[in-house]
């Protein structure tokens, strides 16, 4: 009984990992996932690590989501005659939702609404893009089990990325930017003199 449970759980793990491995087995997926990986790495371990989620970063992610959504729509249309109706409708829903989310992030980012800082976290949108792309390309069949592993293993993915983000050093340019904001001795003397002059006036 225990062996069967462990075997089933191991099968879920392998199924989850296969979602990430699919682009490296089928090169047709690479041209869409490589920009996703690059934008995620730059955001997660560079811009968001230094200054948090910025509105400009959210706008950039919105553009990526629209690009992915358009490509998903293209592939879904290619499989229109082979997929069953329910699967096609589900795929189109994902496509249009992704495009709408991208537009939402761009508009709200331009408007500087704080909600996009929650919605636009790089690791969240990247995860969903990476796990659904093999499904939209018909590399991995959609099933309730696949949807289950996508949901169940998301906290593990999030925790691993959080640990990596914490243990990796801050980018060098971030430290340089911070050091540039620290006044040197000459600047400190000028600032102290200005403060003393202000005090004497009052």
What does this protein look like?
This protein is mostly helical. It has one domain. Helix content is 82%, strand content 0%. The chain contains ten helices and no strands. Helix 1 packs across helix 6, helix 2 packs antiparallel against helix 6 and helix 3 packs antiparallel against helix 4. The protein is globular, with a radius of gyration of 23 Å. About 5% of the residues have low confidence.
Radius of gyration: 23 Å
Helix content: over 70%
Amount of beta strand: under 5%
Shape: globular
Number of domains: 1
What is the helix/strand order? HHHHHHHHHH
Main structural class: mainly alpha
Instruction: Give the low-pLDDT segments.
Output: 174-184
- Kindly report the average pLDDT value: 80
Through-space gap between termini: 82 Å
Number of strands: 0
Count of individual helical segments: 10
């Amino acid at each position: 009984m225990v062996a069967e449970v462990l075997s089933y759980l191991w099968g879920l793990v392998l199924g989850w990992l296969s979602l990430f491995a699919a682009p490296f087995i089928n090169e047709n997926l690479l041209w869409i996932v490589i920009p996703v990986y690059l934008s995620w790495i730059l955001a997660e371990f560079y811009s968001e690590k230094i200054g948090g989620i910025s509105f400009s970063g959210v706008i950039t992610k919105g553009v990526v989501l629209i690009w992915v959504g358009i490509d998903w729509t293209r592939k879904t249309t290619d499989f229109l005659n082979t997929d069953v109706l329910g699967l096609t409708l589900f795929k189109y829903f994902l496509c249009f939702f992704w495009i709408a989310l991208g537009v939402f992030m761009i508009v709200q980012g331009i408007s500087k609404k704080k909600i996009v800082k929650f919605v636009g976290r790089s690791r969240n949108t990247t995860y969903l893009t990476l796990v659904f792309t093999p499904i939209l390309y018909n590399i991995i069949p959609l099933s309730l089990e696949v949807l289950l592993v996508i949901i169940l293993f998301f906290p593990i993915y999030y925790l691993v990325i959080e640990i990596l983000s914490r243990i990796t050093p801050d980018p060098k340019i971030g430290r340089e930017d911070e050091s540039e904001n620290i006044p040197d001795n000459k600047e400190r003397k000028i600032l102290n003199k200005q403060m003393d002059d202000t005090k004497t006036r009052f």
